[in-house]
Specification:
This protein is α/β, with parallel strands linked by helices. Helix content is about 45%, strand content about 15%. The strands form four sheets. A six-stranded mixed beta sheet has the order 1-6-5-2-3-4, with helices on both faces. Strands 9-15-14-11-12 form a five-stranded mixed beta sheet.
Length: about 425
């Protein structure tokens, strides 16, 4: 592997963060020469939280800042209205202004856990691309910048080519996305001196367009760097499971559930995920790479704790770890398991078993809950239940005032019964 002078490139190449980079040798020289150098990653506001599929780019920003440089987060207040076609077979849902604003507020807080904000020269900043995109004059924009974009080349990028090859519709609205993202890069160069754009591998075409626009419009030397698409050993895309997305916002997914996601990592993924999603030194990870079978359990706990501590803080990570140990190693019911509440009055007439699993968040729908029970994967207070319409009543309340529901061996939740009516 190439040895770099800059701490940032040396770290990201060593740990496997880099999929593609435009002219890495020249970027390395700039990273050594300019302190702080400025880079950005854009995030569209399609939901009120990011999930772990966005975690690798966030870690890139964190390493960039810890190397002494300045990260910019661009939230797509404007581009979310267009929709990025990258990696999609269908057009994204068109969101309202209010929905985009609400999503932006939810996403905003996530970055505060991974990056430092303040008045230092390398402190992170968050910018809304609506600041320069919303008031563009269409004809003026086309005359000034349209000449720099080749339709032939735009059609060759994966975000467009793959959609067309699969004969999936691609609207003119979406086709404009890469032009707007390129213009983002140009504006950030002009306003902030930003010369590096980073992102996931699906953004390569969009990023290269921005590099080219900077060169043609301003004579600027800009750079692009992408991280690899992270998949599990099973070939699944990071970020979503059969139970739903692994959100980074605790209001959408508890720290305990986040911890359990990492704790249940497949053996073959442990080393890779330790490199990507923790700051554990490489020499320690290389020793873990030699472990096999049950020896990897300690490494999975290490991964779960450090990944959770980065996202939710060490106190939440330790609490999640203790809950996991109580539940899976000691066989006790930990009060910190995911919990929903119901009043004793509401339970008076009983709760149908399949609907209880939906209520507790262990199934997305009644149909899924019924299939879980029929398949023998459901338990109440650690006893398997096979009758999907059986009634859960006050008789099921344990001494600590809860009813424990389990979906398989790894997913548990409590229904806490409150005496006073809600």
């Amino acid at each position: 592997m190439t040895t770099f002078q800059s701490q940032f490139l040396q770290t990201v190449y060593e740990r496997g963060y880099v999929h593609q980079c435009t002219n890495a040798e020249d970027l390395d020289k700039e990273l050594v020469k300019q302190y702080p150098l400025t880079a950005y990653i854009g995030f569209d506001c399609t939901a009120d939280s990011l999930h772990v599929g966005s975690l690798l780019p966030i870690m890139l920003l964190r390493i960039f800042q810890k190397s002494g440089h300045k990260p910019i987060i661009v939230l797509g207040g404007a581009t979310t209205k267009v929709g990025d076609p990258s990696g999609k077979d269908d057009s994204r849902q068109i969101l309202t202004e209010d929905e985009i604003s609400a999503n932006m507020a939810g996403i905003h807080t996530i970055f505060e856990r991974f990056l430092s904000f303040g008045n230092l020269s390398n402190d992170a900043v968050i910018i809304n691309n609506s600041d320069w995109l919303s008031d563009l004059s269409y004809i003026k924009f086309l005359r000034e910048y349209g000449k720099f974009f080749s339709i032939n080349r735009m059609l060759s990028f994966d975000s467009v080519k793959l959609r067309l090859e699969r004969e999936q519709p691609l609207s003119f609205l979406e086709f404009n996305y890469m032009i707007l993202q390129a213009y983002d890069f140009l504006q950030l160069y002009r306003q902030k001196g930003c010369i590096l754009q980073m992102g996931g591998s699906d953004q390569w075409g969009n990023i290269v367009n921005g590099v080219e626009l900077g060169r043609r419009a301003e004579g600027a030397t800009l750079f692009g760097l992408t991280s690899p698409l992270v998949t599990t050993t099973a070939g699944e895309k990071m970020g979503k499971t059969a139970q739903g997305a692994i959100w980074l916002n605790e209001k959408k997914l508890s720290a305990y559930e986040y911890y359990q996601f990492w704790r249940n990592t497949a053996d073959k993924d442990v080393g890779k995920f330790l490199r990507f999603f923790t700051e554990i030194p490489l020499n320690q990870i290389k020793k873990i790479d030699q472990l096999n079978g049950s020896e990897l359990n300690a490494a999975k706990k290490l991964l779960a704790f450090h990944a959770t501590a980065l996202c939710h803080g060490e106190i939440a990570a330790r609490k999640a770890e203790n809950t996991s140990i109580s539940t899976f190693e000691r066989g006790t019911t930990d009060p910190n398991l995911p919990t929903v509440s119901i009043s004793k009055n509401e339970l008076k007439d009983g709760l149908v078993t399949f609907s209880a699993f939906v209520f507790a968040g262990l199934a997305k729908s009644n149909g899924e809950a019924r299939r879980l029970i029929r398949g023998g994967g459901a338990s109440i207070n650690d006893e398997m239940v096979t009758n999907e319409t059986a009634i859960i009543s006050e008789a099921n309340i344990t001494d600590d005032g809860t009813i424990k529901l389990s979906a398989g061996k790894k997913r548990h939740a409590l229904i806490r019964v409150e005496i006073a009516a809600k």
